[in-house]
Amino acid sequence: MLRRSDSQAPQGSAPASATSSRRTRREARPALTKLFVLDTNVLMHDPASLFRFEEHDIFVPMMTLEELDNNKKGMSEVARSARQASRFIEEIVRKSTDPIEGGIPLARHAADTATGRLFLQTETINGHVPASLPIGKSDNNIIGVVMYLQGRDPQRQVILVSKDINMRIKARALGLAAEDYFNDKVLEDTEILYTGARELPVDFWDRHGKDMESWNKDGRVYYRVKGPLCGALLVNEFVYQEGERPLYALVKERSGNTAVIETVRDYASQRNAVWGITARNREQNFALNLLMNPEVDFVTLLGQAGTGKTLMTLAAGLMQTLESKRYSEIIITRVTVPLGEDIGFLPGTEEEKMTPWMGALEDNLDVLQNTDEEAGEWGRAATRDLIRSRIKIKSLNFMRGRTFLSRYLIIDEAQNLTPKQMKTLITRAGPGTKVVCLGNIAQIDTPYLTEGSSGLTYVVDRFKDWAHSGHVTLQRGERSRLADHAAEVL
Predict the structure, then answer these.
(1) Which domains does the chain have, with CATH numbers?
(2) Is the Cβ–Cβ distance between 436 and 315 less than 8 Å?
(3) 394 contact partners, CB below 8 Å, separation of at least 6
(4) Stretch 425-440: mean pLDDT, rounded?
(5) H/E element, 462
(6) Mind listing the pLDDT tens digit for each residue in 78-118?
(7) DSSP state of 448
(8) Across-strand partners of 274?
């Protein structure tokens, strides 16, 4: 939501001799609400932005409607958003009996939080674009509308809302208020994004060990602890303590100031290797515990290049598909956003078209196919054929309407997905399906997404504290010393 400052109160203060009735009138006087002028890219970014400004009013210039009309054709996400924004505006206008010139109530029903009014441009506004700006450009026409509105009602704060950085810069250079649209951002600062792991303080057992209960079950040790920190813990959050007797555990239950924590399985040990892969650090161990846990239906793994996200996810998928038969097959998909210039159309079937985008899959399969050194050349060839028969590569374009039963679904490069696309993919999961999202929010290739508005950030924040989901942010790269050094200094 837009950052809202308190509405400006009337200036000055009443003298001591002011009557109580005068004070009452002054206190009851309604504060002026703000008027937000919407740029086209805001409506195309989030059509529901019309209803996100609470008690404030919205002004939609005629040029914004023209640009919505110009962008409505096609099957792209931008075209769909443009059509939806036009439908919302039409719905608001159609249901109201108030004249358009005086503003139309934004609230469609009692559940709407928007209590302001929608104003559409009903008159010609000319001569307000400064001479330094070209007249024919739509952005400059909208800036001219903002200047006109501010001059018409100087007592009211008129604010331009745009996702276009250069447009905001031009508006501020002309002395106009301009803001970005913030409602799409899950977090303002990704530094506070949930990491999935928490280091316990040194005095944790002193403060939480009183009346502690402990028991063994299925080879795991459980502790029921009470104390002030328990209220801040989240279900399926990992907790750890380093030292002579390190503790690595998972929060299983939490109620008030009481929590039950369960020790995790040590996947750093060769006896617990997953398809020949062992954890090389603490976060990888936590990630493998989530990937191998049948009770966890949704896993998100964040981390920079080389932290082992894809390798561990594939190893866990192969183990549970080919060995334990928990899933019938592995499905891999990703957003096809090129790093540089697009290479054009690709020949072949759906899977053949997706193959060039799956270089990371091929690299990791080469590693996993060679984990058994005693198999010999014939054994490795047979394993390679078996693995490839159980892995399907799918395009995002054909996901809508599908339902996956007992599948292991991997969504790679998930940082390039919008929250809406992420919802479409995750809701494809049927009974017995596990969904794993991998990504690095520091490497977003989609021009319309940021770290705060990425669909990956969105699901990490929304799924935390659910008993059947888990998240780990991988910290340390394990690819090579060259890759680690490059990630730090470049």
Answers:
(1) 31-179 (3.40.50.1010), 191-263 (no CATH), 276-489 (3.40.50.300)
(2) no
(3) 331, 332, 333, 350, 351, 354
(4) 93
(5) helix 455-463
(6) 888 889 999 999 988 888 888 888 888 887 766 677 888 89
(7) T
(8) 277
